[in-house]
Amino acid sequence: MKALQRFWRWVLAVLIAGWLPVVLVAWWWNASADSQDPFFPPLETIWEQFKVNWLFANVGIHLVPSMQNLFLGFAIAVSVGISLGVLIGASESASRYVEPIIDFFRAIPGVALVPVFILLLGLDSTMRTASIAFAATMPILIATIEGVRSTNAVLLDTAQVFSLTRPQVLFRVRLPNAMPIVFAGLQVAFQIAFIVTVASEYLGSGFGLGAFTLISSDSFMIVDAWTGVLLLGLLGYALSLLFDLVERLSLRWYYGQKKLA
Amino acid sequence: MATVRRVLPPGVVSTVIALLVWQLIGSFGPLAGDSFATATEAIAALVEFAGQSMFWTAVWETLQMAVIGFVVSVVVAVPVGILIGLSRFSYRSTKFTFDFLKVIPPIVVIPIAILVIGPNLTMGIALVIFANVFAIAIQTAYGVRDADPVLLETMRCYRMSLAQQIRYARLPSAAVQISIALRIAVAASIVVAVVSGLVGGAGGLGSLLALTQSSGNADQTYAIILLLGILGIAVSRLIVRAQRRIVFWSGR
Amino acid sequence: MTTAISITDVRMEYPTPDGVKHVLDGISYDVTEGHFVAVVGPSGVGKTTLLRLLTGLAQPTGGSITMGGERLSGAPKGLAVVLQDYTRSLMPWLTVEKNIALPLRNEHLSKAERTERIRSSLAEVGLEGSERSYPWQLSGGMQQRVSIARALAVRPRLLVMDEPFASVDAQTRFDLEDLVLKVRDDFHITTIMVTHDIDEATYLSDEVVVLYGKPAKVSDVVSIDLPFPRSQVATRNDPRFAELRTRIYGKVRGLE
Fold first, then answer.
1. What is the nearest CA distance from A10 to chain C, expressed in angstroms?
2. Domain B39-246 sits in which CATH superfamily?
3. Phi, psi of B147, rounded to the nearest 5 degrees
4. Which of B111, B206, B233 sits opposite A107 (nearest CB)?
5. Which residue among B103, B109, B237 places its CB closest to the CB of A237?
6. Quick one: chain A helix, strand, coil %, rounded to 5?
7. Among all residues of chain B, which has the CA nearest to that of C55?
8. B204-214 and B171-200 helices cross at what angle (nearest 10)?
9. Which tens digits make up the pLDDT trace of B79-89?
10. Chain C residue closest to A6 (CA)?
11. Could you tell me the pTM of the whole model?
């Protein structure tokens, strides 16, 4: 009986959340059905072409390279950003020297540096990954330093009373404590990485989801351009969901604690 | 060092040190060379730009895109957000859709926007609006819903009407969320305006940046980047101060 | 001695994922007009649930609560509340003055009358002159006084308090308890106070209602025959005080 109730509650939640998008898509489908406007082809046509393009013909040529660059670049950014951030954050002297520079960069909204990195490093595939990595490292680095430094004094005192060694304090107290702040930085970094991925493909040429979409647009292959835009949009959303899931799993203790407060 | 920092306003020391580091990297590091500009070279190029009307036109165009887009987003999104937030049903119905739309970076829409609107200021404005409107609306709605239940119950005990509950409890609560959303939106507006120019040809500093970069002029390129950095910091400081005023009670 | 509120055979239950939870069962009690009644019982027994029924925020599953002969539907007219968490029931973005003025909006007073009510309420709780302060600029005890002032300003027929002194320190608690006694002397408002502090219940009230059991029933109604005016030192040293509180304590613990 309990399971049945929970099932129906879940169905209700899906209905409440989902009716609006369904209605909107249906309206779009209908409104565009007989469209003569070259820039707004019928949704049905777009859908057909979407299937042709992305299920699964061009996945290997365009989608995979984009995702490879994105994830590789992000992974590099995470490793470099967190390791460097931990080292700097844990050392009193190092952080004091670095702090003014960090302050300077912290005020610049992360995404503002996107143009910088697009330009700095050129646009072939290796260079794209490098720009993505470079762009994403900064917010992670800043967040990690701040997270490690901001461990609350009571926890540190307790650790000292228990005679924990410095590496122990670092890995068992400071780092876990820094995680919520680090994750906020990771989220920003991931958004930046995605944007830099797409931007680098716009500006460069050749392969990648962004490249495909812009080239289609330039060549007035409008339906293809629409399929590219739709896929990018869906991808952006799916990736952010994925990120949220990872964050929720990793920070279970933090969310649990927040609920009590 | 510590005494120096105490005497000068906080941003100055960090800026000076950052510039020094930049100068050193540019002069002696592996990046030194024609494709990189040192701080002094960039500053010189920036000063030179300041005497050119073409530059100021670009600045004006970027500001137009950012400001008009921002204002339109706020004027549309805040009332819509408040309306959505008033009822649990409307909030839960729209949340998924708005969360979806707010996450899509405007850069993704550029290939179609270029065709439909054209690579011009209007496209830039449209992209800025797209970037902000969903996020501001849903965050406003959240603020309206998020009013403290203890406060609302107290008001119900004192037999205060629904309209009074909205006016005195839900709206001030929404104000906190709105100020957070606006803070993000101001920064996003500038960035999207620049990126529209850079990648979409919409004009302004972004397009100028694309021009200087493709013609290989490192000094000018970094001059513009420096300007954007300064702009970002200045705007960010202003916002924090404005936010503190509006939401003086919440200690955020 | 008229009855202000009649609680008749009230039952409260609500559905949970694990079945129906019975909180209150057959609660009957008549609150005498002008009396100060304390409701005590073990943690989680349902004191706050009962309070929500009395304020009309919830409806009983069975039985009825009547005030002046009419069943409660929604908050009764002339109700004022003082809750435990003053940080969440006062509005941090309004001054003390505006906070107190808020429920007065529905009283249709002239501006002069309103200002005078605010001034006199603040004077009653010992906070005259603090109209322009913000709640968060005041100490916890002072904020709770503002809450009480707000309750007084509407000249309520019924004052309901939910563990009002649980969030302040012990010293402040004694001051606030004496404030409540003073308010009682000056205004004779029918008051129902939920508290977990048995000493406090005995010290302040005319009658103490003990709730006990799962589901909760009225385990005892103890008449506090200690003389007024009461004082922290004299009354608490009175042997009768000890007798009464011991009896109440026993009932709360489910003994005898």
1. 14
2. MetI-like (1.10.3720.10)
3. -55, 145
4. B233
5. B103
6. 85, 0, 15
7. B157
8. 30
9. 999 999 999 99
10. C17
11. 0.83
